[in-house]
From TrEMBL:
Ranges where the 2Fe-2S ferredoxin-type domain occurs: 259-349
SUPFAM superfamilies, per database record: 2Fe-2S ferredoxin-like, Ferredoxin reductase-like, C-terminal NADP-linked domain, Riboflavin synthase domain-like
Molecular functions per Gene Ontology: 2 iron, 2 sulfur cluster binding; flavin adenine dinucleotide binding; metal ion binding; oxidoreductase activity
Cofactor requirements of the protein: FAD
Domain FAD-binding FR-type: 2-106
One of the Pfam families matching this protein, by short name: FAD_binding_6
Name of the protein in question: Ferredoxin--NADP reductase
Domain of life: Bacteria
Keyword annotations: 2Fe-2S, FAD, Flavoprotein, Iron, Iron-sulfur, Metal-binding, Oxidoreductase
Keyword NADP annotated: no
């Protein structure tokens, strides 16, 4: 069973006119279950007009800080984000899945230099990472380049300034605004010139060990490309998508006909037949199988499973590495069967 726990909202903090932070109370008996690493996310499950919704939100608090907090930016036409920003109150109960995700920072003993490029609500996991670096790696430095429309739209603007003031020789923030011109800030978007200015000009004496990118796919792809052009290796770049392209790749395998699928989840086996043009997760849910999932868009890893027999191809994948795909891992929300039988194990991840 995909485990969700009822958690009480301790506090709601208005961050901007379109974003709130939800701080949860973690009961003593669930503290171990809800331990997390910097950069991870939670999935919130709720029902709206009888429809079950699941939404993934990154934790913006640092591990072991006695805070368990996510930030929800209101999206036009969004279902849960509108409710979170306008109707939820302290004391309300939400069902929450324990933290997960692969965009993880683990502090070490060595002195290092880190850089992050974030846009909009992409700051949330990055803030968790920044706080962890400043607290747990006493000699490491962090450079953040953070893009928004204006100061008023900048989530954690005051908190970042406070952290800068507290750690003036270890945290450096380059604000980028696309709609307003502000003193000591960049005007425009995070572009090639912005990246080059940070790594080749202002902070050229900081040999960066790791880069963290979070935000829209277009920004991540562009920044990654510029970094690689400047000699940064792929294993130095870690990213988390908050929005992804709608483009899907063409499935090369045989998508005609039916596939006999067997799913293993929580040590139970379930079998069904499905059209190969459909995706595994959708049909599993139609058969009332309680498999883990969240975004259903191929940008989180909640629905990851391992193929133990047969083959499937993904129409989208911004998460799994080539090595993981070689090992048989798939995102079931994007996976189309291409063989007469397919066996998928959610427990073996």
């Amino acid at each position: 069973m995909s485990k969700f726990y009822p958690l009480k909202i301790k506090e709601i903090i208005r961050e901007t006119s379109q974003a709130v932070s939800l701080s949860f109370e973690i009961p003593e008996n669930l503290k171990e279950e809800f331990n997390f690493s910097a950069g991870q996310y939670i999935t919130i499950r709720t029902k709206i007009d009888g429809e079950e919704l699941r939404r993934a939100y990154s934790l913006c608090s640092a591990p072991n800080s006695e805070e368990f907090k996510v930030t929800v930016k209101e999206v036009e036409g969004g279902k849960f984000s509108v409710i979170a920003n306008n109707k939820l109150s302290a004391g309300d109960i939400l069902e929450v899945h324990p933290p997960e995700g692969k965009f993880i920072f683990t502090p070490g003993e060595e002195r290092k230099n880190y850089a992050a490029f974030a846009a909009g609500s992409g700051i949330t996991p990055v803030l968790s990472i920044i706080k962890t670096v400043l607290r747990d790696e006493a000699h490491s430095k962090f450079v953040l380049t953070y893009g928004n429309k204006s100061i008023d739209d900048t989530i954690f603007f005051k908190e970042l300034l406070q952290l800068q003031s507290q750690f003036p020789h270890r945290l450096f923030v380059e604000f980028v605004y696309s709609r307003t011109r502000e003193e000591n800030s960049h005007f425009g978007r995070i572009e090639t010139s912005t990246v080059n200015y940070v790594i080749k000009n202002k902070f050229k004496d900081h040999p960066f060990d790791k880069f963290y990118l979070c935000g829209p796919e277009a920004m991540i792809n562009h920044v990654s490309g510029v970094l690689k052009t400047n000699g940064v290796s792929e294993d130095q770049i870690q990213f988390e998508l908050f929005t992804a392209t709608a483009e899907e790749k063409e499935i090369e395998g045989d998508t005609d006909g039916q596939t006999a699928v067997t799913i293993t989840v929580d040590d139970e086996e379930f079998s069904f037949s499905m059209d190969r043009k459909a995706v595994v997760l959708d049909i599993a849910l139609e058969n009332d199988i309680d498999v883990p999932y969240s975004c259903q868009g191929g940008i989180c890893s909640s629905c990851m499973a391992r193929i133990t027999e047969g083959k499937a191809e993904m129409s989208k994948n911004q998460i799994l590495t080539e090595d993981e795909i070689e090992e048989g891992f798939i995102l079931t929300c994007q996976a189309h069967p291409t063989t007469p039988t397919l066996k998928v194990d959610f427990d073996d991840v």
